[in-house]
Amino acid sequence: MSALVLDAGALIAVDRGERPTVARIAAARRRGADLRTSPMVVAQVWRGQADLARFLKGVEVPDTTHAQRRAAGLLFGVTGTADAVDGGLILLARDGDRILTSETDDMTALADAAGVRATIVAC
User: Fold this and answer.
1) Angstrom distances, CA of residue 49 to CA of 54, 96, 97
2) pTM of full prediction above 0.85
């Protein structure tokens, strides 16, 4: 089963109640897609929001290993993208996943560099 991988922009959009993003996530859930993000993405957006806390209960937030964090740093360096956290997020994506992001150009570059065949979707 494929997943919808959420970057910080997607979580911020959810927290703000932005309808297009909320609708995309609802449609993914109806299709049975898992929701996934990284611990560092949560750290980027977390300010103690109750609504976001409830939303995150339905989102897989897998721990990362030291090797994965180093690999994320290497991707950041190779692509010249501006946010190292995105490098970690792309390593959670699997072929066939969709990545919901506010930074489509960066995520596309990271996915290409990592060899991940995911669909990049703007939120």
Assistant:
1) 9, 31, 27
2) yes
Cβ atoms of residues 119 and 107 within 8 Å = no
Beta-sheet pairing, 3-6 with 34-36: parallel
In total, how many domains does the chain have? 1
Q: Which domain holds residue 59?
A: 3-122
d(CA 113, CA 2): 20
Q: How far apart are CA 74 and CA 55, in angstroms?
A: 31
Give pLDDT tens digits for 47-98.
999 999 999 999 999 998 899 888 888 888 889 887 888 988 999 999 999 9
